[in-house]
Design a protein that fits this description.
eight-stranded parallel β-barrel, EC 3.2.1.131, 9% strand, Chitobiase, domain 2, TIM Barrel, single chain, xylan alpha-1,2-glucuronosidase activity, alpha-glucuronidase activity, five-stranded mixed beta sheet, alpha/beta, Hex-like_dom2, polysaccharide degradation
């Protein structure tokens, strides 16, 4: 027994040593240099060779080729093939571009790290005979971009993992090694672009001082294929340039933008372009001067055209009007379809409100046939528990991408609308509002890394399933250190332990990762409820919130509309008629309370408390069951996580365990607050078989969460 214990300790010792999460999913181990050949040299190809020399453990030599064959040209400069030679003695990674070779290298290392290269079906023999490889891939989107909401003072709007990664006060003189680590992590999952600053942009980002700082980052990112973009303040000509106006049709304003753009490209020849938030939430824009969004975007597009730059123009616009807020982006942008330059792409949030735990897809995706549009997803968990709650967001994004707009009949999914396959737009893109900060593990919650990873993988290949992505990430993150050579002397008991670990990771994938977003919806806002968060932050529940003088569309009651007659926002043809913005037959399905999917019922309808649901329960009872189910699901996540203690390092285990405890308490807080508040209107008991509330409504209504720099305290509960 003592010998077995020693062997087990040796085998699992590497997996249980202290880890701080800084390696992300790239937990490779160095060893004997592999035989790698590449006939060309360049900064990008040198990185590709170096990565394989350090980390490839497959035994076979690997040849890297930049080639212009017909097949490779069809895959583009970022696509690649990975093939085993006919005699089985070599692997070749080939692309028509250097960037494609690097992506192919990371794909091969991903397969190795996730133990997907073995011919054996047993996870216990990861380094047995290699599979014959015949892989051909190209990205679904031309631009796969992260949007940083980082401010120049180092804070991050909706950031929950510390301060900004960019140390503007130190640049350009001091360069953090994390800048290159950031570029490497993005390249490993196919992300090829980044917006460095907040969409609520300071004009200072375009000053000479800051452009010199941006240049340093662009130079570091370039070998990894990561292009830099900037968010701009539309009033920069006046605020920074001293002009009396920023009217996009003013000749002096146009001249100012031309000069500034020339300056940018003289410093950063591969600069990508501008991201613009205009005439939304107080940000300046062309409408301030009586111009349209198209006129504002086109002015910038014309300036950038010479340099092959693009404009990403956000469709997140709303103003205090009597109109349903969910309709406003459609109403402003649909009439402008076909009026934008071909180097403008309209960036649309996945839902019509604002990154809620569940929304229907934005109808704008099905409204613009002549204009390229791109999805904007939120990786950072602004409305899903910050970095305290575990919420894997690939199922949410798949739900959006797989939704059918019916704009060209059945099969007109958002993925096809945005990837160029439905309308053949050459400019395609997908954006994710990043969750990255300067925390040692990058993302705050260890499992929040999975969302950065998932965004990159879906941006590369949107047909990947959430389950596939979850399996990849879990294995790369929690298996004994990736690439560790097998030990022939490992005994049968150790092999059994390895199999048990794989089984546990499979359970974590199917019952925790894949169910986590739905659990958050259940304990926060089930059945289509939305935006009932507390004033001043988006962490806790406050369906009763009422701030004197505040805009109605910033109040939870604007959205839930609970009264004695029922609950929900009537967006049917009898209400705001938002359902009319969707194509048939979806608009008719959503418009009828009896055919509207129950998960969106209260988004589109004001429903009586006694309305009978498909389960046979009343709406009130169904709401109670959903909230209770969310609480129970999170408690089950704690049970699912507990067995991981014997497989991984104690640091990461305890961090996740601690956050799951917070999440479980917060789930009860949400359940009690919402049910006790809405019960005042339903005037019905919480079903007696369900768990009783542990808080008093009066106490919760008086409680104010202490938020500093948008960070939740460790225990956001009622005392």
């Amino acid at each position: 027994m003592r010998i077995i214990s020693i062997l087990l300790a040796l085998f699992f010792g590497l997996s249980s040593h202290a880890e701080d999460g800084s390696a992300l999913w790239l937990r490779y181990v160095t060893g004997t240099k592999a035989e790698i050949s590449c006939r060309k040299q360049s900064p990008t190809l040198n990185i590709a060779v170096s990565e394989l020399q350090k980390y490839w453990k497959g035994g076979l030599p690997v040849d890297l080729e930049v080639n212009a064959t017909k097949e490779l040209r069809a895959l583009g400069n970022e696509g690649y093939t990975i093939r085993t030679s006919a005699d089985g003695k070599q692997i070749t990674i080939a692309s028509s571009g250097e960037q494609g070779v690097l992506y192919g290298v990371y794909h091969l290392l991903r397969l190795q790290a996730a133990e997907q290269l073995s011919e054996s079906n047993s996870d216990s023999t990861p380094n047995s005979k290699l599979k014959v490889l015949n892989i051909s891939e190209k990205p679904d989107y031309r631009i796969r971009i992260l949007n940083h909401w980082d401010n120049l003072d180092g804070t991050i709007e909706r950031g929950y993992a510390g301060h900004s990664l960019w140390k503007w006060e130190e640049l350009p003189a001091v360069v953090s090694p994390r800048y290159e680590a950031y570029a490497r992590a993005n390249a490993s999952i196919g992300i090829n672009a980044t917006v460095l600053n907040n969409v609520n942009a300071s004009p200072k980002i375009l000053s000479d001082e800051y452009l010199q700082k941006v240049k340093v980052l662009a130079d570091i990112f370039r070998p990894y294929g990561l292009k830099v973009y900037l968010s701009i303040n539309f009033s920069s000509p006046a605020a920074l340039g001293g002009l009396p106006t920023s009217d996009p049709l003013n000749k002096e304003v146009i001249a100012w933008w031309k000069k500034k753009t020339k300056e940018i490209y003289s410093l950063i020849p591969d600069f990508g372009g501008f991201l613009v938030k205009a005439n939304s939430e107080g940000q300046p824009g062309p409408c301030d001067y009586g111009r349209t969004h198209a006129e504002g975007a086109n002015m910038l597009a014309d300036v950038l055209k010479t340099y092959r730059g693009i404009v990403m123009w956000r469709a997140f616009v709303y103003s205090p009007t009597d109109s349903d807020r969910a309709k406003q982006a459609y109403l402003e942008f649909e009439p402008l379809d076909g009026k934008f330059r071909d180097n403008v792409i309209v960036q649309i949030k996945n839902g019509p409100i604002d990154f809620q735990p569940r929304e229907p897809f934005s109808p704008l995706f099905g409204a613009m046939k002549k204009t390229p549009v791109m999805p904007e997803f939120q990786i950072t968990q602004e409305y899903l528990g910050f970095s305290n709650h575990l919420a894997f967001l690939a199922p949410m994004w798949k739900e959006c991408l797989d939704s059918d707009t019916y704009v060209q009949g059945a099969g007109s999914t958002i993925a096809r609308v945005t990837d160029g396959s439905l309308f053949a737009h050459p400019l395609t893109a997908i954006a994710g509002v990043t969750n990255i900060g300067d925390d040692i593990n990058w993302c705050g919650h260890p499992f929040a890394q999975a969302n950065w990873y998932a965004f990159g993988r879906l941006a590369w290949k949107h047909s990947l399933s959430s389950e596939e992505i979850g399996e990849e990430w879990l294995k790369q993150t929690f298996l004994p250190i990736a690439g560790q050579p097998s030990h022939n002397s490992v005994n049968e008991t150790s092999q059994k332990e390895r199999q048990q670990l794989h089984s546990q990771l499979s359970l974590l994938n199917s019952q925790l990762l894949q169910e986590s977003r739905e659990a958050v919806v259940d304990y926060m806002m089930p059945l289509g409820l939305h935006h009932i968060f507390a004033w001043g932050h988006h962490y806790g529940p406050e369906p009763w919130c009422d701030i004197p003088g505040a805009r109605p569309d910033w109040m939870p009651s604007y959205y839930h509309r609970a009264d004695d007659g029922g609950i929900g926002f009537d967006r049917s043809s009898k209400g705001s008629n938002a359902t009319a913005q969707y194509h048939s037959p979806l608009c008719e399905q959503l418009d009828d309370v009896n055919t509207c999917p129950e998960k969106l019922l209260l988004w589109f309808h004001h429903v009586p408390w006694n309305h009978q649901m498909k389960s046979g329960r009343t709406l009130w009872a169904e709401l109670c069951y959903a909230y209770d189910r969310g609480v129970q699901e999170i408690r089950n996540f704690q049970k699912l996580w507990a067995p991981m203690e014997k497989y991984i390092d104690p640091e990461r285990f305890r961090d996740v365990q601690h956050r799951l405890k917070i999440q479980a308490r917060d789930a009860v807080w949400w359940k009690d607050a919402c049910l006790l508040y809405f019960q005042q209107f339903s005037k019905q008991p919480i079903p007696y078989e369900l768990e009783r509330p542990v808080h008093e409504l009066k106490d919760m209504m008086e409680y104010k969460l202490n938020i500093t720099n948008f960070e939740c305290p460790p225990y956001g509960i009622i005392k």
